[in-house]
Input
Amino acid sequence: MNAQSDEQLVDDLRLGLGSAFASLYERYKQGIYSFCLKLSADRFLAEDATHDTFIKMQQNIHTLNDVSVFRSWLYTIARNQVYKLLHKNKSNGRLTDDLVWSDDNPDIALEASEEREIIAQCISALKPEYREVLTLREYEQLSYTEIANITGNSESSVKSRLFKARQALAVKLKPFFKR
Amino acid sequence: MNHEQFQELVNLYIDGELDDKQSADMFLHLSICDDCRNYMSSSLRIRSYYQQEELEEVPVSLDTRVCESAGIRPITTTRRNPLSPLWYTRILIPLPAAASIAFLILVGSLLFSPLLFEEPKQHSENQIEMLSKMPPEFQQKMQFFQ
Output
């Protein structure tokens, strides 16, 4: 059986078909949940953000003008939900471009022994805004343009953030990986 | 150009946004600069890390919550137990192939079945000799098991 395209499912969802919602949820739930988790580094918050994302998708599907950008649109909602909840929980300091690392950045990476664990710790210590561009670029493999659409920034800002995030990580990882 | 600018080129190179001329300049610099090489290798390490990452499994409780809020019937999905992946592995094969395998198993089991072809067990001389050397009560037990 051929899977329905996003466009078809969005049309069906606009008609109020519950099955269309279920199909879209099944198709994107892991991606959205993983994205929220990587962005927030908090399972409970990621669950709430994922829940709110799909409910907003259902409620606001009529506002989506260009169905071909559904995926980016959904990730934009997820991103906004994560920041909304982070702000609500006050676990996130305000971002300035000079500040790449989170305030609550512990030296926990120093205790890590395995390579992946070390990298994961360093990434999770980044400010959410930097984790966001890294995740969208490296994990979701989105283009600069798509990332710019999702984050609401210019492409040059996306490039700059990616650069700063990678640069900060390189400095942080240097003691662990001499070569 | 300074290190910062070369590292920006590395950033673009990793994202496939650098042209050939700039790539050549960047590699020339990398050949003599440890810091920029370190930046490059670190960025590639991060990429490799993300590429090996798997999607997170969504908790069942979240499925239930979303379905309730959306007013749809709960979604039932079969979840794989990570401890027994082989048990849940499904292999798709054509029906004729499956029938042939089933036939071969059936014929094979008939060919090697001891019930059909093996003659009734006869005690060898060795067994009888060993049995006769055992204490009488033990002999009785052994005969019972045979």
Remarks:
- The CA atoms of residues 97 and 103 of chain B lie 10 Å apart.
- Chain B touches chain A at residues 7-8, 11-12, 14-15, 17, 38-39, 41-43, 45-47, 49-53, 55-59, 61-63, 65-67, 69-73, 75, 77 (CB under 8 Å).
